[in-house]
Amino acid sequence: MSVKTVATTPFDGQKPGTSGLRKKVSVFRQPNYLENFVQSIFDSLEGFAGKTLVVGGDGRFYNRTAVQTILKMAAANGFGRVKVGQGGILSTPAVSCVIREHGAFGGIVLSASHNPGGPDEDFGIKYNVSAGGPAPEKVTNAIHARTQQITEYRILDADDLDLDARGEQRLGDMVVEVIDPVADYAALMEKLFDFNAIRAMVQNGFRMRFDAMHAVTGPYAREILENRLGAPAGTVMNGEPLEDFGGGHPDPNLVHAKELVEIMYGADAPDLGAASDGDGDRNMILGPHTYVTPSDSLAILTANAHLAPGYAKGVAGVARSMPTSRAADRVAEKMGIAAYETPTGWKFFGNLLDAGKVTLCGEESFGTGSDHVREKDGLWAVLLWLNVLAVRKEGVADILRAHWAEYGRTFYSRHDYEGLESTAAEDLMNTLRGKLAGLAGATLGGRTVALADDFAYTDPVDGSVAEKQGIRIGFEDGARIVYRLSGTGTAGATLRVYIERYEPDAAKHEGDTQEALADLIALSKEIADIPGKVGRDAPTVIT
Ligand code: VG1
Ligand code: CO
């Protein structure tokens, strides 16, 4: 086996977005495309000779091919060991867990998360640092810069390895260890949560359904929910990871997790319904005829985390991405703990978690997590909910209503306008930016604008600054409209509009979210002239 040095030339557009580099599979399949990016990652890192790299992905189409290439390149670049999930599978939170548990140098996650998979769909790759989290912008910028300069990459001339047999194999001087993708992760969950209490609740007749959406959490959920917690077989639906996720969007929301939603809104609905996404870092929580928004879920978990053994000492602070509703802030205020507002994307939580400033974090996009790893974690959120339900002995809807009664309700919705022409979407954002200075103090739709800005964030730990992270228009009554363009899509542009309104009056907490927000939704279209700028009257997806 010899190391080959292959001459190459840069590709345009190898710029990591909100969460790694995501492109169509056809783009990744171009000769040298993946290799260039992987070599650029390695070229941007220092001091990994002889160290351990963790590699795994969500099992989507091209996962296995990419894993083989990465293993040979890791060997040629001098890593000492790669821990790779059996079959090339590791959920995103499991990669984070394995990196931390084994003191690895870093990891490579192969996923386009909630985007569809298959030969004509999406693929993705990202690098995670030794703390277990997504590389910060300093690193992703260096990787991108390197992709524009690259002239060669190194790869071992070797046969493909058997990824399905657990155990150690050699690849040149490097050891490849094919690991059980679930073991370390499941052990960590057992440490954090009261499995006995949850098991007892299940034995007493508590019923749940977990929709793995034919994505990576199937094996994790079966092992944890069915094998360890005693939920009956069949609790986990769509539990077989498929390369194309069965043709669906592995995105756990009311639109894409339709099968689960029908069960939860049907007759004889189970006590808890939950779903996770392609790479296992998102979660949706449902009770019988009840939907818990991710923003509310973060707030409720912050208020209740101490009920689980792993958080018995309390929560140091909570962080949420800027477009996430401010429900968690209200809990933090009452509890006397710090609340942070960060740009969209989990990489911005890493420093706060490492510094012990926060214990829980969350995003409106169905992401919740804690300091147990450095990624958002779908099954973790489900287990924390289960632990809270087991201790409080109340239903999901009761807990949600009690939370609103105590803290007030934040009506919240996200409207996505997908598949827009990129230049038109950019123009909409730029025009809006141009209007901001004139908006403060203005009256729009009967509300007075208290704040109008383009969100900029200074990291309180390392002082790094991230600018242009989304346009915020805040009103004096606490209502808010936020606009930003997606950084995870692979075709055209997606405009995300986030709308919220605070309702302290418990007598007004019932009712439909879209109706409760109707005037703000109309205003959101008007302020940005969405119909005029991008030719749309209505969003494609509402969550
Ligand atoms: C979306 C979400 C964001 C999330 C990101 C990655 O990004 O809005 O909150 O962190 O996806 O999640 P964007 O730029 O498209 O809005 V995942 O589960 O795709 O890794
Ligand atoms: Co994901």
Can you describe this structure?
The chain has 543 residues and is an alpha/beta fold. It contains 18 helices and 27 strands. The strands form 6 sheets. A 7-stranded mixed beta sheet has the order 2-6-5-3-4-9-8, sandwiched between helices. Strand 22 (457-458) and strand 23 form a beta hairpin. Helix 2 (33-43) crosses helix 3 (63-76). It is globular, with a radius of gyration of 23 Å. The N and C termini lie far apart (52 Å). The mean pLDDT is 97. The site of cobalt (II) ion has 7 residues, from loops.
Beta content comes to: 25-35%
Strand order of the largest sheet: 2-6-5-3-4-9-8
Q: Which structural class do the helices and strands define?
A: alpha/beta
Helix count, DSSP H or I runs of 4 or more residues: 18
- Cα distance, first to last residue? 52 Å
Bound molecules: alpha-D-glucose-1-phosphate-6-vanadate, cobalt (II) ion
- Strands, count: 27
Question: Main attributes?
Answer:
543 residues; 27 strands; 33% helix
Q: What's the quick description here?
A:
The protein is α/β, with parallel strands linked by helices and 543 residues long. Helix 2 crosses helix 5 and helix 7 crosses helix 13.
